[in-house]
Design goal:
The chain is an all-alpha fold. It contains 7 helices and no strands.
Length: 188
């Protein structure tokens, strides 16, 4: 696949996504979810084709990120899992493009990836919350340099992720203490 073809297809799918966002400003409903899921699948297929053709890493990063964002907008658990997978592929592509990578692309990738992990894990998965905090911390660092207007919201989301990790660790410690006390009581 030629780079120009990939760019054109991605641009048309992003235009279709933007039209869906205008048509369904509440970002909900069966029609919205169906349209966004279809767009996400098409972006996913395009990204896989670009990976198979060993295309430009920035083009692959942008396409995987767009697929991840579309999956994230669907919001269902399966879609969030697909979003995190797409964002992981985008990070891999970014690794090959690091020297010339666009800081705004990386910022948006880390930010969206962190949000998807946080939403996927809810308030129940320490590992996902920890991964979210790592991504959001990287996004915050990039935002301070390249997009100061986004710092406040990313700080808040990072706080949520770190708070979730702290809460889950505290709960786990308390459960271990209770289990230890129960074992000691049984042994006595």
């Amino acid at each position: 696949m030629r780079a120009e073809d990939g760019d054109n297809i991605r641009a048309s799918l992003i235009a279709r996504r933007d039209a869906a966002l205008k048509r369904w400003p509440g970002r909900s409903g069966e029609g919205f979810e169906a349209e966004m899921a279809a767009i996400a699948r098409e972006l996913d297929a395009l990204a896989r084709a670009l990976d198979g053709a060993d295309s430009d890493p920035m083009q692959r990063l942008r396409t995987w990120r767009a697929a991840g964002e579309a999956y994230f907008m669907v919001g269902a658990k399966y879609a969030l899992q697909c979003a995190t997978e797409a964002f992981r592929y985008a990070e891999t592509a970014a690794g090959g493009a690091e020297p010339e990578a666009d800081a705004h692309e990386l910022l948006h990738l880390k930010h969206q990836f962190g949000l998807a992990l946080l939403k996927l894990g809810g308030d129940r998965n320490e590992q996902l919350a920890s991964e979210a905090a790592t991504r959001l911390s990287a996004a915050l660092s990039l935002a301070r340099k390249h997009m100061p207007v986004g710092v406040a919201s990313i700080k808040y989301e990072l706080f949520r992720a770190e708070h979730t990790v702290t809460q889950l660790r505290g709960t786990r410690r308390a459960e271990r203490r209770d289990a230890d006390k129960a074992r000691e009581a049984q042994a006595a």
